[in-house]
Specification:
The chain is mainly alpha-helical and 192 residues long. The protein has 9 helices and no strands. It folds into 2 domains: 1-72, Tetracycline Repressor, domain 2, CATH 1.10.357; 74-192, Tetracycline Repressor, domain 2. Helices cover 74% and strands 0% of the residues.
Length: 192
């Protein structure tokens, strides 16, 4: 009798879903082969077929977070919308941000993960740059080096993310958006 064929793509999706559930609940600190196997109701042996090491598992988890983040941030020509999309304004965005913040420790400690995170931030700044340049051309942002403005805006929004994750009552959705709007307004050159 032939063994039943396994749908490897379906199994990989199941594994990815379990990885995400563990990340969402316990962050990167709780991401282990055993934790994912337990979440799936499977053996660690099954899991090592897909991820031979914790490093491979963590790398896959970062890829999942990248995909979910890309799906969350709309392809837009509006700088405010792009910046607001990374804030923890919805349960899904909060979950994604919790995962990213929990990944920083692993990324700082591992050269390969560090390089991946550095490249991710570079892609994010590259995505914001044309929106900043357009805002400068419309007079909504001051003249000057758009790379500096992008870095400042990315840092500002990430600062809001961290504060909101630690103190969501003080930084609810309405206040996060108001703070973003105030920051962008403060950057707008005064027309005279």
């Amino acid at each position: 009798m032939m063994p039943a064929k396994t749908d490897h793509e379906a199994r990989r999706r199941d594994v990815s879903a379990a990885v995400w559930r563990v990340l969402a609940a316990d962050g990167f600190g709780g991401l282990t082969l055993r934790a994912v196997a337990t979440e799936m109701g499977a053996s660690t042996g099954l899991l090592t077929h897909y991820f031979p090491s914790k490093h491979a598992l963590v790398k896959h988890a970062l890829e999942l977070a990248e995909t979910r983040t890309r799906d969350l941030v709309p392809a837009t020509t509006d700088l405010r919308t792009a910046l607001a999309a990374v804030l923890p304004l919805t349960p899904e965005a909060t979950e994604i941000n919790r995962v990213w913040v929990s990944s920083w420790d692993a990324a700082l400690a591992d050269p390969e993960l560090h390089a991946l995170e550095k490249a991710r931030y570079k892609r994010w700044r590259s995505r914001l740059k044309p929106l900043v340049v357009e805002s400068q051309q419309h007079g909504d942002l001051p003249p000057g080096d758009p790379d500096d403005l992008v870095a400042g805006l990315a840092a500002f929004t990430h600062g809001l993310v961290v504060q909101a994750l630690f103190d969501p009552r003080t930084f609810p959705r309405k206040r996060l958006l108001a703070l973003l709007d105030s920051h962008l307004e403060a950057l707008t050159p005064r027309r005279g």
